[in-house]
Amino acid sequence: MASNENWKLSLTFIFQCLLASVVLGIGIWTKPSPSDNLVVRIDNKVLFIIFLIASLLGVFLELLAKKTKQHHFVNGVGNAIELLLLPSAFLAAINLLCLFPMVRFQLSSELLGYPVIILFIAALFPLTFVHVQRAQSLGQRILLLILFNIAFDVASIQLGLLSVKLLSNTIIEIISNVGFILIIGWVMSWWGFKIPELLKFRLNANARIVVLIGALSFWMIAIGTSAFSRADSWIRFLNDWSFKIQSVPVTVIIATITGSFIEEWLFRYAILWQLVKHYRQISKNPILISVVISSILFGVAHSTNVSNGQAIQSTIFQVIMAIVVGVFLASIYLYTGVFWFSVILHSAADLLSGLLVKGASFTAGIPDFFHVELYGLYYCYFVGNFILFINQEEKNR
């Protein structure tokens, strides 16, 4: 029964790649000229040709995978290119499918927002499935998760550029985030991992309330300092504060929280537990190694902010910060057994560091020596908590 379902998903993937190829080919050939209120504009022929090639590559690699189980370098590169480009290619094809009847029958684009997003997320399940089957080793699986996250982010930006009047970018982001969470949860289930108990709020038996309160309190002090302090020296640290909160739409807050949830879902669930399962078989300290590796990946993921115009020095500092924060959040999650702790702490940091408050965040510019010292003290505390929590977790084993 399972093999039959697998074959159906594989055929669905091949069919949607062929359909995308046909639609993109027609779009390139006819090059329609939609008006300003339509869903997509065909103004980059080269990009659509690349999407067309990626769709045909998807058919070729899937048919090749049916004949051989070997994973050569060329196949690996092809899989990476396919995974990075196909989400955007499918989205472009969906847009064109909506565009043709709109041009033909002069329909409005205002009601097409939800169908476009739902069709896009549904199209990602067969794509994800074929790559889940191909990813056998730990490295391949982690690379799959990271590449899919990048591809999904790029496609989400493309979604945000759609001129659909009914939906705002924040609504699109929220729906996209929920879709990503569902897909990653499905992938982990297919690999044999349990979904975190999202309704669990009881602490692990060996977790101490006093220790946890101390760790959480210091975290909020660190976040509050980043958000509300205007000081640039230790002398001004005690009296230079501003507690002004910005007015932000509720949808923006929800989008930020779901974004924080996604990062925890990816790095503290999907990647962390892949590593734990692997190193439990070959290492005496699987928790320690897994937390460090997943946190390094979490930090490196923030290096992409340099492409948004952020200063290199600030980006390097942010990467270091993200690594330490990743270690702390993973430790809190493993120590308490409650996934929501890391999500809430992460969300608080994202909300207070730049969204609700325009504070003295080092990511806003080149960090000065005072902030290097201040955050260095916080990092020492977080690392100390990490050592305490991990030692407790290793003893529990």
Automatic annotation (TrEMBL):
User: Which biological process annotations from GO are given for this protein?
Assistant: CAAX-box protein maturation
Q: Which GO terms describe its molecular function?
A: endopeptidase activity
Q: Which InterPro entries does this UniProt record tie to the protein?
A: CAAX_protease (IPR052710), Rce1/LyrA-like_dom (IPR003675)
Organism superkingdom:
Bacteria
List, for all copies, the residue spans of the domain called CAAX prenyl protease 2/Lysostaphin resistance protein A-like: 249-351
Question: Per UniProt, which keywords does this protein have?
Answer: Membrane, Transmembrane, Transmembrane helix
Where is the chain membrane-spanning? 45-64, 84-105, 111-130, 142-162, 174-193, 205-228, 248-267, 287-305, 311-330, 337-357, 369-390
PANTHER family named in the record: CAAX AMINO TERMINAL PROTEASE FAMILY PROTEIN, SLR1288 PROTEIN
Similarity comment: family membership: Belongs to the UPF0177 family.
* Name of the protein this chain belongs to: CAAX prenyl protease 2/Lysostaphin resistance protein A-like domain-containing protein
Where does this protein come from, organism-wise?
Answer: Lentilactobacillus farraginis DSM 18382 = JCM 14108
